[in-house]
Amino acid sequence: MRRTRQLKVGLRVRDLDASCGLYRKLGFKQVPHTSYPGIRYLTFGHTWLILSGLFIHSDHTAVRDQAARTGPLGNGLVLTVPTRNLQALHALWCAEGLPVTLEPADAPWGRIFMGLDPDGYELLFEQSPSR
Questions:
Q1: 28 DSSP 8-state letter
Q2: CA-to-CA distance for 129 and 85, rounded, in angstroms?
Q3: How far apart are CA 69 and CA 76, in angstroms?
Q4: Strand-strand pairing, 47-53 and 110-116
Q5: Dist CA 39 CA 78 (whole Å)
Q6: Distance (Å, rounded) from C-alpha 51 to C-alpha 15?
Q7: How far apart (Å, rounded) are the C-alpha atoms in residues 91 and 9?
Q8: pTM of this prediction?
Q9: What letter would DSSP give residue 24?
Q10: Kind of pairing, strands 122-127 and 78-82?
Q11: What kind and span of H or E run contains 11?
Q12: Beta bridge partners of 127
């Protein structure tokens, strides 16, 4: 049997439990894993999101380690999350007090909005048109 290849994205975060809770509210499923207490594994479809505490492990070089620990976090990375109810997700985002960088708007492929998570990672939420 061939192994399934999956996209895995790792984000270093300041507050592991708060970030994990937020992503679970967005529809990510947490995968129980107790071997590494400073890491949370989540899935969204076939994609894995691996959250790790900002200071839980070191990087492959001292320079990269220092850059990862001192930030700024999130610059240049955008996670796109599909949703069936953009308005409800926007309301949740606002209720969490998180910054919205683009209010709900129409795009050629559907309806979108963008916001920053607590560590400055930008998420683009997209709702495809109903068929």
A1: P
A2: 11
A3: 16
A4: unpaired
A5: 21
A6: 10
A7: 26
A8: 0.77
A9: H
A10: parallel
A11: strand 8-13
A12: 111
How is residue 64 written in tokens?
């990269």
If one counts every other C-beta atom within 10 angstroms of the C-beta of residue 51, the result is 25
- Model pLDDT for residues 84-128, shown as the tens digit of each residue: 999 999 999 999 999 999 999 998 889 999 999 998 889 999 998
Give the residue from 78, 74, 83 showing the smallest Cα distance to 27: 83
| Residue predicted with more confidence, 6 or 1 | 6
The β-bridge partners of 102 are 114
Asked if residues 3 and 99 have their Cβ atoms less than 8 Å apart, the reply is no
Name residues whose C-beta falls within 8 Å of residue 71's C-beta, 6 or more positions apart in sequence.
Answer: 120
SS3 state of residue 62: helix
**What is the token pair recorded at 80?**
């796109």
Residues 18-36: tens digit of each pLDDT:
999 999 999 999 998 877 7
Question: Cα separation of 64 and 101, whole Å?
Answer: 28
